[in-house]
Structure formats: C-alpha cells, structure tokens
What we know:
Layout: H1 2-8, H2 21-25, H3 33-38, H4 46-59, H5 63-72, H6 81-100, E1 113-116, E2 120-121, E3 135-144, E4 149-157, H7 168-174, H8 178-182, H9 187-200, E5 209-213, H10 217-229, E6 240-243, H11 244-252, H12 261-267, H13 279-295, E7 304-307, E8 310-313
Parallel strand pairs: 1-5, 5-6
Antiparallel strand pairs: 1-3, 2-3, 3-4, 6-7, 7-8
Amino acid sequence: MDELKENIHGQDTNVKMSSGEDDKAIRPAGGDASEASQSNSDFSHPVYKEIALANGHINRMTRDELRTKLAELKLDTRGVKDVMKKRLKSYYKKQKLTQSAAEEDAADAYYDYICVVDFEATCEEDNPADFLHEIIEFPVVLISTHTLEIVETFQEYVKPELNPTLSDFCVKLTGITQDMVDAAHTFPVVLQHVVAWLQEKELGTKYKYALLTDGAWDMSKFLNIQCRISQIRYPLFAKKWINIRKSYGNFYKVPRTQTKLSTMLDKLGLQYEGRPHSGLDDSRNIARIALRMLQDGCQLRANERMHGGQLLAVPSSAPVEGAPPPRWPGNRK
C-alpha cells in the first residue's frame, strides 16, 4: 500500500496526529541501537580509537575496494557504496568490541521474533479527506532474530462492512477481488484468528517479540480506524512497533525520501519478490530488509507507539520491552 500510504499521509482521519509528524512530534528513535548504546560507554577506552581509525580507512575506500574486502570477509557484497561502508564498519566495530570485552552482549537482538505487518485496505483513486479505510488483508510474516530467516507466515482477507463493494481501483492495485472479501470473515473474527496464531507461537510468554511496519500508517491509521469501525478496543500488543523506515534512515544515514520500500530494497541490492501491493508479499519484502539490517549490525527496536489515539515516538533512552502477550482487546463500551 505504498502509494496509498503516501496519499493519506498527513490526513486527519479518526486519529489524532501531532503536527509535523516526521520532524517534531515524531523524532527518529532507536534506528541504530548500537550507536545509542555507545552514548553510555566510556569513549576513553583505546578500542574506540581503533574503531575510529578503521572507520576513517573505510571512508576512503572505493566501491571496488569495499566489495573486495566484504568478499574476503565472506560478507554480503550487494548494495550501494554507503550501505557497504556501513556493513564493513559494523563488522569491524563488532569484532573489536568483542575482542576487548568493552561491550556486553552487543550482538544480541532485543527480541526473539519480529512480526512484520503490512495491511491492505479499501481505497479510491482519489480518496476524499474523510474516507475511512477498512482493512481487507491481514498478513503477518514472522522472522527469527537468531536464525535470521522467515520462519512462518499468516494471511487472511477481511470483509469490509462500511463499504462492502471494492472500487475497481482497489481491486487493480491490491489484486484482492470482490469474491475474496465476500468469502472472508469480518475484522473482529480475523483479529481473533491473529491473536490465536500469535499465542500458538508463545510470543509474549516464552519468547520476546515486537511488531514491525513499513511506516506509521498501518497501526496509527489503518488499525486504529478499523478498531473504531468494528467497535473494538485497540489491541495492547500493537501499541508499540518498529517503523522500519525510521530504523533504516537512522542506521544507514539516509533522508526520508530514500526510505520507501522499493528504494530500500534497491539500495540494499535486493529486488522485489512477488506482487506489489499484496499485503503478504509486501510483508515478505519488508522482512527481507529487516533481516539484511540485522545482518549488517542494526539492533531493531520499537520506535513508535500509540497513546490516547495519538502517534508518538519511543525515546531511544526508554527501556527495551517486548510486546505484551497477545490478547483479544474486547469491545468498546
């Protein structure tokens, strides 16, 4: 839903949004957790001088030299020059800190699993300002931060209730047909299925986990609006999430204009796999970006949250907590 998300960005539809969402109320947080952890470290330690010298050398390397060095170290050689530089710096930093014992468990991930979610929703070619998007596909892609692979997926289509007939534009964009949503369950039932699926994986009980999205809209707009339409409470386990666009921008030091799904894939030397705007395929590709970032040394952590219907940042100084055990949120009173 990349284009749809861009189109609705900034619209005030059943969710309170602080003005200046990207620059004021929502400030980058938690993208490069390894750098955040350094702020509390003793930079007088000789290891940081070694890291600085190594970084300076890497900064002077040509694209071919970077690719050759990465190949020697058996690291991924794909991506633009800045991505390769970041990958090599992360490798040397991890090696030197491990050798000097200046970092405690820095390579450990904050979560055991990450659930990637990318909703598809009803839409028109020119959405009016008061258009209420209803979720019509609920996908989840589960990735392991330990094995660095996709381990399982969930997908269900959803029957819209306010506007049960899909527009021709929506069908063409998403590939979701009228027959698919007519045969689907309504959102409350699908959400119950999602909760049961997450519970089967023992997420929030045995394993620490977090949700991850491509932007803020999936949770702050689509899920928030859908819960109001369906007269159910906003689920507690979706109150915080990792906005991969922020994490990617912070980690690789690129502007917001370079954090669209297609651009992130391209900069990492990856190609889109599947059908664009299929919720499940979009989620799989977002998961591939997340896995590559983890491989490159990024410690993904929750950086956005919902509170009182408002989208807020999670400060990088906040304790890292996994999402709570998934539960049915209950009906609104």
